Amino acid sequence: MSLDQRDTREEPRHEARKPSVRETMLAALDSAIRAPSTHNTQPWIFGIEDDPAAITLFADTDRALGIADPTNRELFISCGTVLHHVRVALAARGRACRIERLPDPAQPLFVARVTLGESIPITEEALALEHAIQERHTDNSVFQRGALSTTVLDRLAKMVSNEGARLHVLEREDERAMVADLVAVADRVQQEDPLFRDELAHWLRSGIAQAEDGITIEGIRGFIEPWIVRTFDRGDGEAARDRALILEGSPCIVMLSTERDTPMDWVRAGEALSALLLGVTDEELSSSYLSQVVEVSSTRAALDGLLEGRIVQVVLRVGHGSGGRQSARRPVRKMLKTRSG
Asked: Mind listing the domains of the chain with CATH numbers?
């Protein structure tokens, strides 16, 4: 055969191997663990069941925040965020699922069972939210001035409503000033408590150490910041900084509320928070938490008083930011247990 002759025979085609059900579940978990949690504690444990195929989710109280979150409210909210992430990740892999929330009263830490269903078409929405999981991160920078579009806010409110919660948008200057004042009060209350500072310091990590959880502090300061936090009451400084950030760099504050304040409400609030954050990311917006204002009982009660009987679960800044990066995560194998009982 001369060099200019070509073999016209077709190469045999090898179809890509379809992943097993177990591989699909593990791949979904590998994506879902990008879910946010207070102090990046990642307070969840997963199990894999084979017949029928299911993922079980348990709250990990070894990673609870006993001082900042004595009722485990934020713990269950965090578990709700990862539950919603699991749902999104499965949909992006073409699998339906059925959710049982808090399925066993005898096991109060048993948050949910996610039973896989039939194959389903993969929608553009599912792929967009899966992409948002990979891109989402907290952004504590100063946000650009200017109101968010009504279209965007309506979409975010619908995403939250679909998960059984309600979104409240605060854009007026007097509303943001009120939140800023309450955040400042909460900063001072928390920072004057040595036990709170000790707990916070426990979850601070040096960026050099390449930790898999916690709050990363870059540079050499990452090694000394835990000592500084434990030693000094910086409440006035924190209060002044946060108040200025809200008034000058937060054109939109959103509050997520539920009808009651039970573990089921906390789980649903977490699912709604996940939907909200993924929607924010998909809209190319940024967000960051104002957790302290709902962690201190007096300031949380003041916010509740604005909502005509509803309960505030989460407060966020939302806008066009320019900072932040994804936090570290433990691998799935460190979150997985063999049996779910």
From this structure: 21-136+328-337 (3.40.109.10), 150-192+234-319 (3.40.109.10), 198-232 (no CATH)
